[in-house]
Specification:
Blueprint (H helix, E strand, L loop, with lengths): L5 E6 L2 E6 L6 E4 L8 E2 L4 E2 L6 E3 H6 L3 H9 L3 H12 L2 E3 L3 H12 L5 H8 L2
Antiparallel strand pairs: 1-2, 1-3, 4-5, 6-7
Helix pairs in contact: 3-4
């Protein structure tokens, strides 16, 4: 008995549905392909992995010294970013507020660019 083939329906370059049935307009694909993947006309591409953490887990990604530098900062936008982090239930690594806040921490010397990238990598 052979393994059934998987097929994907692609709309505007994005997989919107997969099935084991060979339906008109569906493309053969690997079993790993699911809704949200993209198709560039030749191959299926998985979406980038985005980190999502609880506030506690996200803040623990910073070293003690980095957290202390953030707390010691008198920059009002750093304080606002830290307040927002503490109030959030979860932190998404791809959220505009997260990215802007992390860029500010780099610009103000609380963390380095390399550490920012490390902290945001799942």
């Amino acid at each position: 008995m052979s393994t059934p083939q998987n097929y994907a329906r692609v709309v505007d370059g994005v997989v919107v549905e997969t099935t084991t049935r060979d339906l008109p307009g569906y493309l053969p694909c690997a079993w790993a392909v699911v809704a949200g993947w993209t198709h560039d006309g030749n191959e299926f591409i998985a979406p980038p992995v985005v980190g999502v953490w609880s506030t506690f887990d996200f803040l623990k990604r910073f070293t003690l010294q980095e957290r202390a530098a953030c707390r010691a900062s008198t920059h009002p936008l750093i304080q606002d970013f830290m307040d927002l982090l503490r109030a959030a239930g979860e932190v998404r690594g791809d959220h505009d507020d997260t990215l802007a806040g992390m860029a500010l921490l780099v610009a103000e010397g609380c963390i380095t660019e390399a550490r920012k990238n490390e902290i945001l990598t799942p």
